[in-house]
Design goal:
The structure is a single chain. The protein is mainly α. It has one domain: Four Helix Bundle (Hemerythrin (Met), subunit A) (Up-down Bundle), CATH 1.20.120. It is built from three helices and no strands. The longest helix has about 70 residues. The radius of gyration is 31 Å and the shape is rod-shaped.
């Protein structure tokens, strides 16, 4: 009878140790998941800032282009008026409009590239986080057997 109780107590101790190990692994998994979330959040903020800056530049260039095409001088911003103050030659004005258009198009391409890179990063980080959770789930299942 004493042997049965001793075996049972040893089994309880063994299960308590296994539970403790699994809790530590769970805590480590939660910490790793939190780190991945933080990385994802930081990357997202960085990408959003870049997108915002690029969008602002595009808006400024579009406003400048619209101001150049406008016949009403009151619609033109002061910085555009300063740039245009010394230009009297139509070819020079046409060159200026062409340069602004090229810069706007380049910024649009850069913005689209940044959006695609942001989406790819989001997908990669989501997959990595999912893989880490799957791996930790599998470890937990193996150890509980």
């Amino acid at each position: 009878m004493k042997q049965d109780i001793s075996d049972w107590l040893n089994e309880v101790k063994s299960l308590q140790q296994q539970l403790s190990v699994m809790q530590q692994e769970r805590d480590a998994a939660f910490q790793e998941a939190a780190q991945w979330r933080d990385r994802f959040h930081d990357e997202t903020q960085l990408r959003q800032k870049k997108i915002s800056l690029l969008q602002d530049q595009i808006n400024q260039l579009e406003a400048a282009q619209a101001a150049l095409q406008s016949t009403d001088p009151s619609d033109t911003g002061p910085e555009v008026l300063e740039s245009l103050a010394g230009m009297t030659d139509p070819a020079e004005l046409q060159q200026y409009v062409h340069e602004i258009s090229q810069e706007r198009n380049a910024l649009r391409r850069e913005l689209e590239t940044e959006r695609k890179a942001h989406q790819a990063t989001r997908e990669e980080l989501s997959l990595a986080l999912g893989d880490a959770i799957d791996l930790l789930t599998q470890r937990g299942k193996k150890q509980s057997k």
